[in-house]
């Protein structure tokens, strides 16, 4: 079968490495282009990167020459030299400049950056939760011109959280919630958190993280309102209060979150657990990276734990546990999500998979080039 | 100056070791008796214990023979062989049996155990917060008979928390609060938490901890109502909702707590910080273990942290930081407290110091024996 | 294809769990019997064990009832109720009693215990290194009587070390070596090392470990001398001085070892690396658990590292790096080996695989029962 | 009493912070000048630094304005604006340029940098071990011209090691030794080791560390040979083979080292331990930072450990343990030393103290300015 060519912007960073690891044997996508900053451009990827994952760097990727992250020309796109589907994991200031430029040039930019998540015309999507928000794509100018567009996935904490919240919002409605995170160091990239700051320690602060988490939940669980006349639409933010405390802990991968929640309609323990276990919105699509159960509820008294539960659903499932009454709101529970798989590269790849199924990869005179010859 | 003789029940455990460390050069108390379970009794303390602190075991303590933890006879007390002031750090099931028996025999039992904290006639005291609760002592039968009594200090999480809450309760009133703890492994004693459970991990469960924390806060911040006719009294629990999430993290010493709070009377940032900084209720007493500032507010954006702030006030101060608005309640903040100093042995010693100042150490025909000859 | 029935003695411990994980989809063996101490016997395995691995406990294993570890009767073996092939990971004192009894009853006992490793008639084998030592089996009385026998694999440190040493011994001869280990906590089982002892710490002592490592290397690299008249044989220990320093470090899985070595015949850097890379003694056998490259040499200046290299060869390969001259002996290098996969359960399974290929599983009147019906 | 004015070059780094902490209440020295790179110069120290120690930054130091690290003029020295005694902890490339310039300008530069440790005319000194090497000062040109000079202390690993070796060299002679280090992350400064590299991991490589350790031991234990005619001298390096393996482990402070040693004269266990315990070469000098016992031998089977033994002698003592026979050389033992106290700032301060006692602080026309008015 033919696979679509994809590229990675910011290929040498920690999230870039996860893209490479997760796309290594992907049935639908094939990496044909890697770009990074000037420091890395021109070098073989194996030299340019400081590979920090515990699976080996694929040999054919190691040999690929890292390209500069300059915006591609029409020729580069037409020839297939630069692929039409671009996964982006560049830092926010660079994303601000490059991502719209790539979209305007005619690429589908699937970004893990925070730069445009809250922009009114940019879908912020977790496929199991709000794939209807992709309707916002039609409001993007580039989309109409040449098929290019920009979509984003949320902050690593927000993804695990909304996966646990979505079934509750759908069945019972959410009035307010309180969340305290205990976040892994891989979320800060490499070199990221100095060991002197985190060995045997807790740092009760991550810059802008609480703000992102509070506002992204509102957009993710918001409603897409189509404007059928104009063929566009917008998002009504969720009307719920969210209060977040974010902490860094000495864990490599896996964000743990303690949640207290008040529902609009009361729910029993059994109803809550059933809502999570029955949540399988993508089942019909057979997406390669979608876990069979996006939310797994574990009844053990001391789960989830990063060391034991991080790999569930190949790192794409959220594990929930310890559901118990809250003396202030309604219920308390704990959730865990893999922050660099489900919370970053895997989230973007799942967005690309659902976009493929939805037929959104249609580019001006470019369909052929988007496919790799079998 | 003469120092009062004191003994330690449960001397070989982690809290017992802290008692020994903190009492090593205490100006008012001198350890003359160490007791532990049958396994240790009869051995020199240096052999019986597995010393786990980073200061050396004092040589004269190492040589003391560990006594069995049997209830002392009248002769042993009268002769001074067993001291009248007993610090207890035995496990709860043993405390249930031994502590009342020691009190009935005529000892002042100053306990760190959870067994009797919520008993209606037992003071649960943090001296800066509710030393008036010692009024409950007069309701204890032993007290009238022979001067013996039983007092307790709270759970390690509750102590740091109520130190931060007391100034707020006094000035503004507390309506409700959330607290998520990230607790150090030393709180579980030795051997305690297996390394396979906590290295690079978070365990979102500590047995009975959330229940203890929620209920002890209510008693600590409750009001002592004297019944002047009967010469006794009782505690009216604080009428505030408290919801706790407790977690274990890979930190040796120092419990970090994330708090969201709703006040009865609105308060500004400046008023909150002033309430903490001006809180010095014990200043007049010059207690040897009382920190000058029981609550220190740090304005840095990323404090408090266990590794950097645990030693403030010789481990007896609570550090508060990151005061900021809460979108759900009124304010969010973070606090840190040393769990085996302020949260255990130091708490009991401070209780003993304030009891000494209040003149509560009066035993039937025993005053002389309670003092060490200079 | 039919798979041979196997059982596990000591199934609930950490190594027992690894046996279950690694045998879950084994093409040659199927777990049909689990035994543990009286505390666990009679319970479903899922209840009896405290599963500590990051892959889920297989559902069909969770339901199996744990059997008592009593020696099987002839009927239990004849009926196939107790399988003929028994993996053992019980503690040494229990192994001393049970393992010979199981062998005498007619079982092939493949043990990870240290109890009989140095016994003159018991093979201590790493298949890539000294599978000819299985010749010792013929000296075991049970072998002749009913086909039962006892084989062992070495200490977790010794396995990684001899895999790196064997190619050097074969090509150049070893005169002496130093080895300093930095060992993971999983080697001590569960609960094992208390977190208070190892968080942010190094413990320069592991009971009996240095002795085991020094003596086991001598036997593993020793020569099997067949006594053809008697149809038996014995091991001539390697005539090399080995000096070991063993340390515990805060790592979950993966023993790192620093080695300095003096060879009998000088070797260049290229010859050393080639010896490791060309070492593939089992290639012809296509054993399911044998890594293609038992020794991988990594040229990066800072490898191997537990976090990055532990999974090579599915945890069965030894990674070697940093070969450089030693100012005291000839060469210095570093090696890494997965201590609970290659160093324990995987070692025993590989022994079983080579024994199967060698046709050593022949039991008195029992061949049929040893196979699971397809 | 008057205290000598001292300054710190590189005051904002991790070692700079230790200088400030250790000099805070020093009886002989007072910090009057702090310098750092251009990025920090001009700011109050409290703003310029990222204080990472667990004792508070002294308030008067926090207010001091950080000076540029330019070489002082004669006027600045004459006026006392820049003190004559300069502790230096700048990076090696900067040290190469600045330290000789400061010495030539007339300062006593007491450096922790590696830049000049092996220079033939620069003393590399641990006061308990080789204070006679200060005789090399007389070979420095600046010394004769204006009193300025440059002295260094060794690498953090070398200090702990030579303290344990010196008593053995003096009594029995050393023929060869093998040392494997397990080094704390604080040795790499801040931000230093990324947490992704060291959490739950071991890194078997520290750039240039093995080379430094091997060569510095040779110089430290070498003999100063005075050339009495010329009034100068030189060092005869120790004629012993030293082989080092250096590793980074997840420990905050405290380097652990495993040593095997061959002596020239055989020694018994008792003689070895006595050599360490009786080693008190500085006792007569009453230096403020010198530990009473520079080498403490601990007989417990599992000591020394960073978490338990790092603070001995206020971080200035080396703890030795586990003396046992080595099957390859003569003896094996383990040692521990605090790498940022004894291994860096404390080492330089102790050098300054012994230099003061030896009367080496004599500057051209400057004696008065070197003292702070009482």
Automatic annotation (TrEMBL), chains A, B, C, D:
It holds the Pfam family Semialdhyde_dhC. Keywords: Amino-acid biosynthesis, Diaminopimelate biosynthesis, Lysine biosynthesis, Methionine biosynthesis, NADP, Oxidoreductase, Threonine biosynthesis. Pathway: Amino-acid biosynthesis; L-methionine biosynthesis via de novo pathway; L-homoserine from L-aspartate: step 2/3; Amino-acid biosynthesis; L-threonine biosynthesis; L-threonine from L-aspartate: step 2/5. It is an enzyme of class 1 (oxidoreductase). Residues 5-137 form the Semialdehyde dehydrogenase NAD-binding domain. Signal peptide: none annotated. This is aspartate-semialdehyde dehydrogenase.
């Amino acid at each position: 079968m033919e696979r679509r060519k994809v590229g990675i912007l910011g290929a040498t960073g920690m999230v870039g490495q996860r893209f490479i690891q997760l796309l290594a044997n992907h049935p639908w996508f094939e990496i044909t282009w890697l770009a990074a900053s000037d420091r890395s451009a021109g070098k073989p990827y194996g030299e340019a990167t400081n590979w920090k994952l515990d699976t080996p760097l694929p040999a054919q990727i190691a040999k690929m020459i890292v390209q500069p992250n300059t915006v591609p020309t029409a020729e580069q796109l037409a020839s297939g030299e630069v692929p039409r589907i671009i996964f982006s994991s560049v830092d926010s200031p660079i994303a601000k400049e490059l991502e719209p430029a790539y979209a305007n040039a005619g690429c589908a930019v699937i970004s893990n950056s925070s730069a445009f998540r809250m922009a009114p015309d940019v879908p912020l999507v977790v496929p199991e939760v709000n794939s209807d928000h992709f309707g916002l794509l039609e409001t993007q100018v580039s989309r109409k011109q040449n098929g290019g567009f920009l979509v984003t996935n949320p902050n690593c904490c927000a993804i695990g959280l909304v996966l646990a919240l979505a079934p509750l919002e759908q069945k019972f409605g959410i009035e307010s919630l309180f969340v305290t995170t205990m976040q892994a160091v891989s979320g800060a990239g490499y070199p990221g958190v100095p060991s002197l700051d985190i060995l045997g320690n807790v740092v009760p602060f991550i810059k802008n993280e609480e703000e992102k988490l509070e506002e992204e939940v509102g957009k993710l669980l918001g409603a897409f309102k189509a404007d059928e006349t104009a063929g566009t639409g917008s998002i009504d933010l969720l009307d719920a209060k969210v209060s977040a405390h974010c902490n860094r802990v000495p864990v490599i991968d896996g964000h743990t979150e303690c949640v207290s929640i008040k529902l609009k309609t009361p729910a029993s323990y059994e109803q809550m657990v059933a809502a999570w276990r029955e949540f399988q919105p993508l089942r019909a699509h057979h997406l390669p990276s979608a876990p069979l159960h996006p939310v797994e509820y574990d009844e053990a008294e001391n789960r989830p734990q990063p060391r034991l539960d991080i790999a569930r659903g190949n790192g794409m499932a959220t594990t929930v546990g310890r559901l118990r009454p809250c003396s202030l709101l309604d219920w308390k529970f704990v959730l865990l999500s893999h922050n660099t798989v489900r919370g970053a590269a895997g989230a973007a790849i799942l967005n690309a998979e659902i976009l493929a199924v939805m037929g959104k990869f249609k580019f001006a005179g470019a369909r052929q080039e988007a496919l790799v010859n079998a």
